[in-house]
Amino acid sequence: xxxxxxxxxxxxxxxxxxxxxxxxxxxxxxxxxxxxxxxxxxxxxxxxxxxxxxxxxxxxxxxxxxxxxxxxxxxxxxxxxxxxxxxxxxxxxxxxxxxxxxxxxxxxxxx
Length: 111
Prior knowledge:
The protein is of the alpha+beta class. Helices cover 22% and strands 49% of the residues. A five-stranded antiparallel β-sheet has the order 1-5-4-3-2. The chain is globular and about 40 Å long. The termini are far apart.
């Protein structure tokens, strides 16, 4: 089979934003089994607090590496996800970071 790589983003509202970035980023890797090499760290994206996690695991029987970032901005949460075969993960990592940094946010968010 051909190796795959995927990058995705999503946004959620106030109900989800009550959780910490470290908790939110864990939700992005549901469905991944055989997890290992899990690293989670705080990050700042465009001046907003967030969390980044990287790990390895299995998805649909394939060995994958995952990068996930959750960023909070007032009542909003922005999630970014990168999934690739372990052997090609590093090759796409800079593109994923650029994807995360492309987040355009207003100066202030009102409730």
